[in-house]
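User: Second chain of the day. Same drill as before.
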Amino acid sequence: MKVSTKGRYGLRAMIDLALYSQNDLVPLVSIAERQDISKSYLEQVFSALRKAGLVTSIKGAQGGYVLASDAEDITVGMILRALEGDLSVVPSEDVINTNRIESYIRSNIWQKVDEKVFSFIDSITLKDILDDYLNMDPSPMYYI
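Assistant: Same format as last time:
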């Protein structure tokens, strides 16, 4: 599994949205400025997130985006699947030859790697990330 720019930027944008949408709609231009991501690129990302039911959009001058569910109900896995599709380390269409060794590797290596990765990313919620992020030391120490 390799997470593309779309997945990385999408996760950053969703964290930003979760931080700033608690009381109001958040315009994409605000997320784009804070995260230094192109607004047009974020439009593509948020289109996929909206189709997946992870965000809701309101059009108009005072419009913007908000999480479609509580931050505790949205996982990193949900976000990455909405933006990346199949997250398997070796997608099933990549298996051309189904000899015994390949079958063994698929079921005893790749499938187990997938299970561990999926379990991990499905266990982390946006709320978990927000809590950790907000509890970070706000001023790192620099030593000379």
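Helices lie at 5-20, 28-35, 39-51, 76-84, 100-123, 126-134.

User: Great, on to the next one.
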